[in-house]
Design brief:
single chain; 257 residues; Rossmann fold; four-stranded parallel sheet
Length: 257
């Protein structure tokens, strides 16, 4: 049985974690593979600044550092920012899949240009960073936001009647005004809107979280992983320091309740 660790980028209780785990319902992977969802201990309140990006990288690195030793065959990162992906690739030999860049690359298998549909404008820097790293800015028809305040814990629960039509309206502008051939959901927190949008949009729409699960499955079966020349191993893995930081963050979070 292959095992995949899905790192969820915020601390959360079991109820909210189940909302993340529900992404598995969108893809049929068959027998022979299992997924464990693990929330981080170190995280920003949201991903809206450079400070947040640093905390996110550290938190996801700390959460996934022992994945290979714990018997996992691959790691998926549950955020379009791809936070911690490069750092984890430097310390792990198993595949590490981030949804941001992989969704963009998958979109180019389906069309000439794609748009990224976000909840709000403050996530824009996450996409422009990845587009610049991949050299794909010219392939991005637009970055559009529906102007909605996200909730990283409860996701879209209870807001469907308000949020789904607003996302649809923004997505149609991506197609009719911007010329997108493919739409990418701008966050794994938006996965609950995928079925609604897929039934109504005239173009394909990529659900980035389930895409990473399929890619992890393929990487395991094909015995593929990242190139060490692109992700060189550190001279020393700071496991103890990272674990200590995680312990402190967990204590501080517990004291704030």
């Amino acid at each position: 049985m292959a095992k995949v660790l899905v790192i969820v980028p915020f601390p959360m209780d079991d109820d909210n974690l189940s909302k993340r785990r529900a992404q598995l319902n969108a893809v049929r992977l068959g027998d022979g593979i299992d997924f464990d969802f693990k929330p981080v201990r170190i995280a920003p309140a949201n991903y809206v600044s450079q400070q947040d990006s640093v905390l996110a990288d550290i938190g996801i690195l700390e959460a996934g550092l022992q994945a290979e030793k714990d018997g996992y065959d691959a790691v998926c990162i549950d955020t379009m920012s791809d936070s911690g992906m490069s750092a984890l690739r430097s310390v792990l030999d198993i595949p590490v899949i981030g949804p941001g860049r992989h969704a963009m690359l998958a979109a180019l298998m389906l069309g000439e240009k794609f748009s990224i549909l976000a909840m709000w404008d403050r996530w824009r820097h996450l996409y422009t960073k990845t587009l610049a790293e991949l050299g794909l800015s010219h392939k991005c028809a637009s970055l559009r936001s529906a102007g909605l305040q996200p909730n990283n814990q409860s996701l879209l629960a209870g807001k469907e009647e308000e949020f789904f039509p607003a996302l649809y309206e923004a997505a149609m502008k991506c197609v009719e005004v911007d010329g997108a051939d493919v739409i990418i959901l701008g966050s794994t927190t938006m996965h609950e809107a995928h079925a609604y949008l897929a039934e109504r949009l005239p173009v394909p729409i990529i659900n980035p979280g389930p895409l990473t699960y399929r890619l992890a499955d393929a990487a395991i079966k094909l015995k593929l992983s990242h190139a060490r020349s692109s992700y060189p191993a550190p001279s020393h893995i700071a496991a103890e320091k990272l674990a200590a930081m995680g312990d402190i963050a967990a204590r501080l979070a517990g004291g704030s309740k």
